[in-house]
UniProtKB/TrEMBL annotation, chains A, B:
Class in the EC hierarchy, top level: transferase
Site positions (Involved in the stabilization of negative charge on the oxyanion by the formation of the oxyanion hole): T114, G115
Annotated protein name in UniProt: Arginine biosynthesis bifunctional protein ArgJ
CDD domains cross-referenced by the UniProt entry: OAT
Catalytic machinery residues: T188
Family, as annotated: Belongs to the ArgJ family.
EC number: 2.3.1.35, 2.3.1.1
Function: Catalyzes two activities which are involved in the cyclic version of arginine biosynthesis: the synthesis of N-acetylglutamate from glutamate and acetyl-CoA as the acetyl donor, and of ornithine by transacetylation between N(2)-acetylornithine and glutamate.
Keyword Cytoplasm in record: yes
InterPro entries: Arg_biosynth_ArgJ, ArgJ-like_dom_sf, ArgJ_beta_C
Length: 405, 405
């Protein structure tokens, strides 16, 4: 139903992007400014962090896409432009500079920043960097943009799918980044999704808001909800599919593709969490409600103790059960079973919330893999949810003990 | 008004205690069974974990002190007796064995366990260990009992105060333990408080429940709410003070002493958190409500990112502000100021939720101390609260990557 294609956010028709080094980051080998421009206006939906401290770019982006449309996106790494006295002014000036260089209007721009909080951010890098980024715009530039939004990420995170709507070939691309301060709440880290699907802003907003609850909000690296989380979808309609303006079969297909894109982004962010050596995927089956399924899955992959045990490849399942026990919601734990699974096989370690005999050796072998799945069966309903996290390692502490130097 | 004295939980009149090695822990040099007996019945109040998974001893203790009284306490380390199919039966058998050996009734006993979750726990160590512990009972035995309840704690945690009520000399002692799976919720880790004050069970219960909200519930080592948290106060009345049965001046004094004891315990647990090199104390001033003050203080000392920065002695205050921003409650962040303080001095790093110029060198010097205070002024009301935590270190990951072996 969908096929993976190359190109990331520039895979959909009519999107150009670039990534340049403008000098916000000291290391000249690291790109730090990403630009994305669509040939035509895009229906645009976004979700933002629920943190009371919000990055200045979020405040500016909210007003710019209040009408449901945008046409371009500018994002820097190396500085979050948060808690800076002149942050909003600076973000607005950046949009003006980008408008001048592209011939668009300032409020056509989504703007975002990621990096250290509360460090002064000068305008100079943008003055030289924005025209350079405009010069470099290309329909093959998605990869460079994805590289320019990285902070402690160890790899570029972009991806694209091709699919059909009403018989018409459409595309959806995404770039995203982690990798610390990851505990999205009704929003997510920086995730930018492009598509050439023709869809109304209202339907796009509905699709994104439903989707992030089940994927991007279900990631946790360290329990810290960032001040700059943002997920944006820009749909320029250039695929020429029948315009989606109601809850029909094409909308359902669109949501399925958006789900695949967001699951991919969630797994990428979690698996490349700061210091991570393992991706943890928790799948909760037969929960009494969707909310409980989501809460239980997230609680397990958020537990520092369980994450440390996974780093040590120790099947200390009691910590997972403990994390279920303090998950939010009204539910019974008495029928819960736990299975640990990887490419090496699977092992049932807990049944009816009690110890179930198993081979520690085999369990350790299962946990030696890079991707670990924790299967929870609550035997108490029909709801299902997943969450994604990573192990807690020495490297996480090292990265964050000395992030700014 | 109160003076520190020796003896821990056996400092108050009429309490005897012991700590022995009974074989639950493999290392014969580690004590693993604590016993406490009062000469006369004690008004008893307790709070327990809110985790849906609860240790078997908690279920048994709840029924035993339902009448407001107990006379003794038995606690093992090395195994939490949680998620064991025969856990409740085993806890009851332990109380019966202890009753036989002491001449008390099984339901005179508070029982507690701490250690690994979901590992089978045999009765044999108790069969030999309980009579041994009874033989060793002494009014100087508080220190041994405090040693026997340790798990990954690096030091014994007991303390006592002497004070006057109605002109009569009284005493209060405490023993407590950490040091991982620490994020108490309406309860706490294992904390046992003894006193010879004469007080009704109702007033004792009221005092304890009010107190834990401001101290023991305000600790966080790793965000994991344990399955076995319990705080108990046993008051045997042998001091001979005027019986406290109403909210009078003596009750207020009693609450002040209980607060000192619980602050001490909170600082001890946090400062000896798994892998900790620093005690973090966050004090929130001028908050719009008590709930917001508590929530903001707890949020900062719970942030993995901030804890890692403290380990690295890096004044990355933006992470503290970020943690305030995602704290629960309805409040404004716009007037928030942050000061970092230690014996080396103090430095204002953030004013009106924005960057405030400061010397990074001096800030690092302040953070080089073992005890760090984070002062938050919300400039938005009259409420105050504190919370206690520790830094996040390589050692935490090491301890928990391989806890069971």
């Amino acid at each position: 139903m969908s096929v993976k294609i190359l190109g990331g956010i520039t895979a959909p028709k009519g999107f150009k992007a670039s990534g340049v080094h403008c000098g916000i980051r000291k290391n000249k080998n690291k790109l730090d400014l990403a630009l994305l421009v669509s040939d035509v206006p895009c229906a645009t939906a976004a979700v933002y962090t629920q943190n009371k401290v919000q990055g200045a770019p979020i405040l500016v982006t909210k007003t710019h896409i209040a009408d449901g449309y945008s046409q371009a996106m500018l994002c820097n790494s190396g500085n979050a432009n948060t808690c800076n006295p002149n942050g909003v002014e600076l973000a607005k000036t950046c949009c003006e500079l980008a408008a001048q260089a592209t011939g668009l209007k300032p409020n056509d721009f989504v703007i975002a920043s990621t990096g250290v909080i509360g460090m002064p951010l000068p305008i100079e890098p943008f003055v030289t960097g924005i025209p350079l980024a405009v010069d470099m715009l290309s329909n093959k530039g998605g990869n460079f943009a994805a590289e320019a939004i990285m902070t402690t990420d160890t790899r570029r995170k972009d991806f694209a799918l091709e699919f059909k709507l009403g018989g018409v070939l459409c595309r959806m691309g995404v770039m995203t980044k982690g990798s610390g301060m990851i505990n999205p709440n009704m929003a997510t880290m920086l995730t930018f999704i492009t598509t050439d699907v023709a869809i109304s802003p209202q339907m796009l907003d509905q699709a994104l808001k439903a989707e992030v609850k089940e994927t991007l909000n279900q990631i946790c690296v360290d329990g810290d909800t960032s001040t700059n989380d943002m997920a944006v979808v820009m749909a320029n309609g250039l695929a020429g599919n029948p315009y989606i303006a109601e809850n029909n079969a094409d909308y359902a297909t669109f949501c399925t593709i958006l789900h695949k894109i967001c699951v991919w982004a969630s797994r990428e962010i979690a698996g490349d969490g700061e210091g991570a050596t393992k991706l943890l995927q928790c799948s909760v089956h037969h929960a009494p409600s969707k909310a409980v399924a989501l809460s239980v899955a997230k609680s397990i992959i958020s537990s520092d103790l369980f994450k440390s045990a996974m780093f040590g490849e120790d099947a200390n399942w009691g910590r997972a059960l403990c994390a279920i026990g303090y998950a939010e919601g009204d539910f019974s734990i008495k029928n819960v079973s736990l299975t640990l699974k990887s490419e090496k096989g699977e092992v049932l370690v807990c049944q009816n919330a009690m110890y179930h005999p198993y081979s520690e050796e085999f369990a350790s072998e299962i946990l030696s893999e890079r991707e670990i799945e924790i299967l929870v069966d609550m035997h108490d309903g029909d709801y299902y949810a997943q969450a994604w996290g990573c192990d807690l390692t020495y490297e996480y502490v090292k990265i964050n003990g000395d992030y700014r130097s």
